[in-house]
Amino acid sequence: MEVLLDVKERMSILKNFYDEVRVVDPINNIVFSDDFNLKINNKFNEKDCSLSNCYDVWGKKSICSTCISKKAYLKNDTFIKLEYNKNHVFLVIASPIEFNENKYVVEILKDITNNGSIVDGSGEGNYLDLTMKKMGENLIKDYLTGVYNKRYIDQRFSKEAHRNLKESIPTTVIMTDIDSFKKVNDTYGHLVGDKILRGFAKVLNNNIRENSDWIGRYGGEEFIIVLNNTNLKNGVKVAEKLRKIIEKMSFDYGDLSLKITSSFGVCEVSEKEDPFDTIKNADEKLYMAKMTGRNKTVF
User: Fold this and answer.
1) Which of 85, 128, 183, 239 suits a disulfide with 133, CB 3.0-4.6 Å?
2) Contact between 234 and 172 (Cβ < 8 Å)
3) How far apart are CA 188 and CA 190, in angstroms?
4) 150-298 — its CATH code?
5) Which of 200, 180, 212, 175 is nearest to 251 (CA)?
6) What pTM, to 2 d.p., does this model score?
7) Where does the source fall among the domains of life (predicted)?
8) What's the pLDDT tens digit per position in 228-258?
9) How many CB atoms lie within 10 A of CB 264?
C-alpha cells in the first residue's frame, strides 16, 4: 500500500487526466488500488487495498492476452492499450517504476467511453491506433520532434543514473545541438527550422541503441543523449559517429537542400557528483565545442 500512496502523491498534478491509478506487482501477482468504483467480482481486500489478480478489475478469469503490465515490466518501457469493463472503455497506460529497490508497474486508467473515440466492439482489449497512443505520449514526448521531453528527462535520468552507479554500470551523457541554428531560422524561416529539428532528432534517435539508450529534447535545438552501460571513451565514439553522420547529410525542404553541422559535449556520470551535475558539465563541454570552432566533440 505504501507504494500506491507514493505513486498517487507524485501523480497528484495529473489527477484530472485519469480515473484510477493502480500499482501492479507482477512477481507476487498483486494489484494495489484504492478506487472502489472499478472493483468487481468481490475480490477486493479492504485491509491492504489489493486485488488478488490484475485482471480481476476487468471481470476476466485469466491474464489478458494483450497484457501490457507484464510487457512494461519485462521490457522496461511504457505501453498503451484499450480495455473493456462491461459498457465502459478504458485507456490504459502501463509504465515501470522502482520503489524501495523493488520493481512495479504503474497503471493509469482513463474512462474514454463518452469521448467520441471509435473502438472495436469485440470485447477484447486492443492496442491503440496512433491517435489514441498520442494521448499518453503527450505526457512524456516533445510535441515537435517526438523524442522525450524535459519533464521525462527530469524524472528518469537521476533515478537511472543512481541505479547504474549502485550496480557499477557506467552511464555517459551527450549534450548536442545544431551549429548556427538561429541563422537557419532567420534565413529560411521557422518552418524550415522545425523541419531541420525533426530531422536532426530522427538521425540521433536512429543511431543509438534502441533497448538501452534514449534521447530527449533539453530545450530549443539542444538535445541530451543518455548512454547506459557506456563509459566515457565509448561515449565519445558515439558522439563522433553522430557528428560525422550529421556532417555528411542534407536536409531537404521543398527545393531547398541544406547542410548543417553539430557540436557535442560528453561526460560520464560519477559517484562524486550529483547526476544532474553531469548534465551541466556535458553542457559546458558543448559550449566549449561551439566556442572553439563548432562541428567538434569536447570531453
Assistant:
1) 128
2) yes
3) 7
4) 3.30.70.270
5) 200
6) 0.61
7) Bacteria
8) 999 999 999 999 999 999 999 999 888 889 9
9) 27
